[in-house]
Amino acid sequence: MSHLVTPTELRVLDATKTCCERWGIAKVTIDDIAAEAGVSRATLYRMFPGGKDVLFDALRVHELEDFFTRLSAHIHDTTDLEELLVRTVVYATVELRSDDHLALMLASEPGDTLGNLTVQGLPRIIRMASLFIAGKVEPYLDRANAQRLVDLLARLVISYFLAPSDHVDLGDERSARTFITTHILPTFVPPAVQPASTH
Fold first, then answer.
1. Nearest to 92 by CA among 70, 124, 114, 113
2. Which string of DSSP letters, residue by residue, matches 44-85?
3. CA distance 20 to 105
4. Fewer CB near the terminus (10 Å): N or C of the chain?
5. Is the pTM of this model over 0.85?
């Protein structure tokens, strides 16, 4: 987990997001962000030594932590594994689809944005998902399988978000439940042993 974000750092991160939406990642300057946040350039560099790359990275981490904090709150009262998985994928999918900033970035900066959801960013997303969700899966599965399951769910949600399917809608509870009970749960939870026939 990153350190607790101060109010000024949060203002700078919000300003970074606003500037990216306004001008695009490639064109935003440190001066733009400092002006939007109402801080000096020197203050910004003290908080984020390394400039724009460090700042964009901090924004990605902050957004991920915020996303998974809200997701954790949404699933905290589930009482069985199926419900936990269904709620997780539905919530994550709906949030991704309704994220205006993400939609704008995918439209205006598809290369960078896709990179942060796939090749460069996926390991971090999976680490964060494991940090927030694996512990909620562990009452039902051993630790190794809990980690494998969370890894699979993260990849599935991102894949179906970026390339929607005519057959599966992870944002729809009924469709998500059918997918999970048919394709996911049987892989991780062996079917109950049937009693031997008395005939």
1. 70
2. HHHHSTTTHHHHHHHHHHHHHHHHHHHHHHHHTT--SHHHHH
3. 8
4. C
5. no
Reported confidence tier of residue 136, pLDDT bands at 50, 70, 90: very high
Domain boundaries, the chain: 77-187
- CB neighbour burial string for 106-134, b if at least 16 within 10 angstroms, e if fewer: eebbeebbeebbeeebbeebbebbbebbb
Residue 129 in this model has a pLDDT that exceeds 50: yes
Continuous H helices in the chain: 7-23, 30-37, 41-47, 52-75, 81-97, 100-108, 110-117, 122-129, 135-137, 143-162, 173-179, 185-188
- Least confident range from 48-62, 125-139, 155-169: namely 48-62
